[in-house]
Amino acid sequence: ASALRYTTESTPYRDNAVGQTRRYLETADESVFTGDPAKLAAAIYDTTRHPNPPLRLALGSDTYNAIHTALTERLTALETQKELAASVALTH
């Protein structure tokens, strides 16, 4: 993506998820970048100024929807274990 600027790649991050994400962004078609860079930067900055910032920041409706779907699926899977989880409790 021609609009992105990168720092020098750090060796410890080259062969993990960070490096994979960097390579994806470096080769991605411009059409995947749908967010407004100024709004993204402002949102990130504003979040850092918040007294209680979120641990993870979902920026963009596509990101929100992907996270929501993943968490909903995880909660659904967890619910199937509720009875089993309770069954191993110590009884006094």
Core attributes:
92 residues; elongated; mainly alpha; Short-chain dehydrogenase/reductase
Describe the structure.
This protein is mainly α. It has one domain. Helices cover 58% and strands 0% of the residues. It has 5 helices and no strands. The protein has helices spanning 11-14, 17-27, 37-49, 61-79, 82-87. The model has no long low-confidence stretch (mean pLDDT 91).
Q: Based on CA inertia axes, which overall geometry fits?
A: elongated
| Total number of helices | 5
Low-confidence stretches: none
Distance between the termini: 62 Å
Strand content: under 5%
Mean pLDDT: 91
Largest sheet: number of strands, sense, barrel closure:
none
Order of helices and strands: HHHHH
Number of domains: 1
Describe the protein's topology.
Blueprint: H1 11-14, H2 17-27, H3 37-49, H4 61-79, H5 82-87
